Amino acid sequence: MNKVALFFGVLLMTLQANAQSKNKSSYAMPSRDYVMLQAGYETWTNVPDSIKITGIGRAFNAYLCYDFPIMKSNFSFAAGLGVGISNVYFKNQQIILNDTATAIQFIPEQVDYKRFKLTTTYVEAPFELRFFENKENRNIGIKAAIGLKVGALVSSHTKGKRTLNNKPIIEKVSTKRYIETWRYALTGRVGWGNFSVYGSYYISNLFRINNGPENIHPIQLGICLSGL
Hints:
Helix content is about 10%, strand content about 55%. By secondary structure, the protein is mainly beta. The strands form two sheets. It has an eight-stranded antiparallel β-barrel with strand order 1-2-3-6-7-9-10-11. The protein has a two-stranded antiparallel sheet with strand order 4-5. A hairpin with a 7-residue loop joins strand 1 (about 35-45) and strand 2. The chain is elongated. Residues about 20-30 have low confidence and may be disordered.
């Protein structure tokens, strides 16, 4: 995940440097935030006492978007496609994914894990209504956006890290059985130039009905790098 973020970051900075070396562009060819990279913190709402979330959950999102200016106003509409990856960590607890039980199980850890997490990966399509202060160069000035994104589950797995006889062991179990196939989030971001803060609230349940705890909704807060 870090390598992907680094690649997009280097690509974005390189293209921005080339753009800045040219004369100021006209409104007909503005920077339209085709690339959005987001890194943030993720947690869950309405978590029952039986689930012990710990540490700093991590989220990384990368999107390619197409921007449609609304006349010659300071607003535009954008649609895109990309990937969203989430990691949530648990304290002294593990998840049983490969059991025959109908519902996912959160149980006390059976061995001493240094780290245990649940990772989900989605293909996502963001839709935004955007405001930009500077019509000629969106790389400077105030920018803000509100929107909705739709995601389809690609993979879901747990990963536990521990040691045995001073040797590292990684245990990984993959299944999409208990996670909802589709997810929907309300989104917002505001910032200056290429940098902004963003937030996402997932209005859909994380787990399938009768296959996991009800009314658990992930929340993300983080930073966004956008441009091109």
